[in-house]
Amino acid sequence: MTDEDKDEKTLNRLLYPNPFEEEGEAPFAVDEEGIPILEEVVQPKPEPPPVPEVEQLSDPKERKALDYDALLSTMRAYLKSQLEADMESILQEVVPEAITAASASLEEALRQELARRLEQRTSEVIDRLLEQQLNSRLFS
Predict the structure, then answer these.
(1) Superkingdom of this entry's organism (predicted)?
(2) Are 74 and 49 in contact (CB under 8 A)?
């Protein structure tokens, strides 16, 4: 590390102090510049357990011996994760479309308002100029 790097690092620490340095130890690991390590801050989502398939159990006695509450719980967790994934993909498609549609309608509304005001202002200017010309002809 060069002296310039050390000076920049010191300057960054002065300008952007780590709030955890004053309190003592940070609740998570930080790198040498005081930036929290991502893996320490964000915990990954746990993967849902795989859904056991009933077809795998060929013996009817084994099927009856299954703990159906556990099976239902596992299936609920799997369905919930699937629904969340589906909703996330739907939202990723719908939100940009909604923003685009809202932008288009806002743009159209602004164009209409601008055209209305421009027409109104043009009409006012024409009326004022006609009135000035009429007054100048009458009083000249």
Answers:
(1) Bacteria
(2) yes
